[in-house]
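Changelog-adjacent note: as of this version, every example in the card shows the full chain rather than a window. The one below runs 141 residues end to end.
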Amino acid sequence: MAITATPYLITVTHLAQAQQDLYGDTLNFALFTSDYVPNYFGDFTFGGVAGFETSGAGYDTGGKSLANRSQSFNNTTFAFLLTADALVWPALTATFRYAVLYNLTKNETLIGCIDFGENLVYNQSDFTLDLTDGFISLGRA
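Full-length structure tokens:
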């Protein structure tokens, strides 16, 4: 299965209106079960979809906050890239399909969703979401 990442419409709108600071606001990734069916045009806040968040040993409700973000701009490709430290859930026991990024600072607005394409099952194993090569890239088509 292919891994895909999709933005929520609300964030695209907020970025166009300069209502979110993806570099300075507190951003979290939370893990969601396969019961969640993302509605990229109708889901707006974490609170509205939090019922689909996974649970289990090694997982804290609300997910993990991004740390050590940096930003860069490529003058050749005209792409803006935002990176952060990898997120690690040590000794995780949980089943999930999605990693949902949301802005804790701005009313828990949903930003984007990574679909792993299938359930990932962890049984006291470390799960790492590597964001060091970027988690948001904006550029021309």
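Structural remarks: Residues 9-16 form the longest helix (8 residues).
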